[in-house]
Amino acid sequence: MPLAFQSSFAPMRASALLFAAGALVACGSGATTRSSNASAGGSADASAPVTQGGEPMQATDGLPPGADDAMAQLASSPRHAEWVTIPTRPDGTDSIRAWVVYPERSQQAPVILVVHEIFGLSPWIRSVADQLAADGFIAIAPDLMTAANLPGAPENPDPDAARAAIRNLQPADVQRQLGALAQWGMALPAAADRYGIVGFCWGGSTSFAHAVDAPNLGASVVYYGSSPATAALSTVRAPVLGLYGENDARVNATIAPADSALQALGRTFETEIYAGAGHGFLRAQTGQDGANMAATRQAWPRTIAWFRQHLEGRTGE
After folding, report:
1. pTM of the model as a whole
2. What pLDDT, on a 0 to 100 scale, did the predictor assign at position 289?
3. Rounded Cα–Cα distance for residues 43 and 218 (Å)
């Protein structure tokens, strides 16, 4: 069960240049180009998905897989996915690569930006995007380290190289790129004109900072990411949901100050702290003696309900 820590309030606004520092401790071309791949995994046999250890993939219907099962989910996904290079400056001097997954639905879908951890745009992040598409959203997972040309990118970037490269990202550039991606996504023929953002660890901090930076953001979900400095929160407008593991004192120490500041501003900020779960529980689902999986089973439905409520006006599902 989540620990009792909920409050209603919401966002503010500012540059939030400090958003990346805490997260790091834990964890171009002007033309749009596409590389289609209907089943994101590549060469795996979709008829018999297995874990990286060769065991049958555990059924987690309606949930993203853990890190070990990500490639198997990508290989067996029926959804259309593609690599896209998206310009992020009007003059075409900057662009980033992104993994885009489309839902199977008859109506236009809201867009969700999926922000990676310090490990870069890994197969696991792409599998989270696939699950968001399964839940009815157009999911766009940007490679915010496209310019670093990481070994193994784009399919499986080297995590050590990613951890080193992410320290060189400038928060202002990251937020500019995310804003450009959102506009590109909402202009897709299959997209509605509403978007949300979700991120994990470093990406969670980045998603909270995006609520500070983007007045047209519809909703933000922060997985175990540090909160922005309270002085930056006055520009938050979008409702923010924070999901945390109990055993994550460094990150959790930033919740109460943000809660107090946003409550005073009359914003919407709701939080859950999951008993016994650790940092990165959605990725490391087998950890913490079952607490991480218990947190996953509660946090993901909460995430989808949040986006459906604030981007589609759907409640009670």
Report:
1. 0.85
2. 98
3. 37
